[in-house]
Amino acid sequence: MTTLEHANITVPSIDAAIRFLNIVAPDFKVRADEYRDDHYRWAHIGNDYNYLALQEPNEKVSAEDRRNPYYDIGINHLALTVSGVEDIKAKLELAGYRVNGDMQSEPFRKRVYFWDEAGFEWELVEYFTDEVAKRYIYE
């Protein structure tokens, strides 16, 4: 079986990304956080099997996200499988993160979308079955 090991994302602030991920994925730990020779910062945050490779732009003053998600080519959102999606939603709202739409409840999953401080959209999904045919509804 193929699994996604990591995604590499350039973010305006690694610290802001870590704050968001600490709420969403409490099992994720900072595995590495370093500065390269040309003085840009990178970090890996995740668990023993999956992680996000985060990098800050070399030239922050000229770095700007001009992409329009769902219209321009690029990543629209990242989805994380979580436990306790309702509790995570409440914690994110309490921390001031912006929800994108209502919680979507289906018989075998619940999911919700949030924007982080960088403007990235995250889908958080909790499954209530291991039966693949019941997990995904394509109607």
Element layout with pairings:
Elements: E1 6-10, H1 14-24, E2 29-35, E3 41-46, E4 51-55, E5 77-81, H2 85-94, E6 98-99, E7 104-106, E8 109-115, E9 121-127, H3 132-135
Parallel strand pairs: 1-4, 5-9
Antiparallel strand pairs: 2-3, 3-4, 6-8, 7-8, 8-9
Q: What Rg do the Cα atoms give?
A: 16 Å
Beta fraction: 25-35%
| Gross geometry | globular
Q: Number of helical segments?
A: 3
Main beta-sheet annotation: 5 strands, mixed
Helical proportion?
Answer: 10-25%
* Overall average residue pLDDT: 89
Low-confidence stretches: none
* Elements, N to C (H/E): EHEEEEHEEEEH
End-to-end gap: 26 Å
Can you count the beta strands? 9
Global structural class: alpha+beta
Name the descriptors.
139 residues, alpha+beta, five-stranded mixed beta sheet, globular
Describe this structure in words.
This protein has 3 helices and 9 strands; from the N terminus they run βαββββαββββα. It is of the alpha+beta class. The longest helix is centred in the N-terminal third of the chain and has 11 residues, at 14-24. The strands form 2 sheets. Strands 5, 6, 7, 8 and 9 form a 5-stranded mixed sheet that branches. It has a 4-stranded mixed sheet with strand order 1-4-3-2, covered by helices on one side. Helices cover 18% and strands 34% of the residues. The protein is globular and about 50 Å long. A hairpin with a 5-residue loop joins β2 (29-35) and β3.
Summary of the model, kept short:
With 139 residues, this protein is an alpha+beta fold.
